[in-house]
Structure formats: C-alpha cells, structure tokens
Amino acid sequence: MIKLEKITIRDAAFIANMAALLFVTSAVAMPLMTITLFGLRNMVTAIFYAFFATVINIRVHKPGAITLLGVFYGAILLMMSPVMCVTNIVSACFAEVISLALFRSYENTKGMFLAPALIAPLTLPFTAVFSVIMNDVAFSDVVQSSYLVPLAIFGTVLLSFAGVFLGWKIGSELKKAGRL
pTM of the predicted model, to two decimals? Predict the structure, then answer.
C-alpha cells in the first residue's frame, strides 16, 4: 500500500520556487521554438526538469510532489502555450504514478529517482498526440520522417538520466550541508 503523507505549505512553497527556477533555466529552449524537429525542445529541457525534480524528491520525498511540480510549472507555461501546460502536467502525473506503482513510496532511492527520470521522456508521446490533434496533421508530418528524431528521443532519455544524476549529487551535498 502506498504511504500517503501530507504536503505542507512549506513543501509547496519549495516546489513552487523550484518550478520557477525550472522555468528560468528552461528558457534556453526558447530560441529552438522556430526549429520544428520533433523532440529537440524536450531534449534541451530534459536535464533541467530531471535535475529540479530530483532535488524536490530529495527534500520532500512525499507522493504528489512531482505532480505538484508539474502543476506549478504548467501554470507558468499556460501563459505561453496551453499545450505545453497540459503536456507537462500529464507527464508529471504519469511519471509519479508509474514510480509509485513500481516502488510504493519514495523511501526507496530507485523510486525517488525514477519519477524525475521519466518526466521528460513521457512528454514526447503527449507532445506528439497533442500536435496531431491540435494541428490536424498526420503523425508522419509531426515527426517529419527525419533520421534525427530517434537521436532527439535518445538524447531526451540520456539527458533526463544525467539530470537525475546531477540532481542526486548536488541535492545530497546540499542535504548533508543542511541547506536543503
């Protein structure tokens, strides 16, 4: 059975601050908005999303923390694009559900790091589905039959796990120092 703990106001404020930092650091993807290669923007932001989600899990480690990150980050993204908002919220929810279904809690370090590693890769299928629905085009038009698309997808997964590793290293040091 999944152990449920309440997220406090202090935890929510920390998650909101991390969502704001995630938005600021993810701004490096803004110049890439004109490039239509599927998965490229997801790849660039994957390391940041995984990093901040891992730091949140190290500090909060309660079910719902990653979903709350998705909601706060999605609320910021809503001003730019409702599709990005929904994609990020749904991806964060699915990542947390998968992680909790496999490990039952965030007490296990594998469970704590699986959800942040899954968020960015899970945005890829949701981005494709929303692109097909919103733009009324075929899936083949979304991925453009390019050989670079599999590289972008692989890069998203790789950078996501790199972000988890960096978040774990830095978050652990901050926790030892009493700063987290």
Answer: 0.91
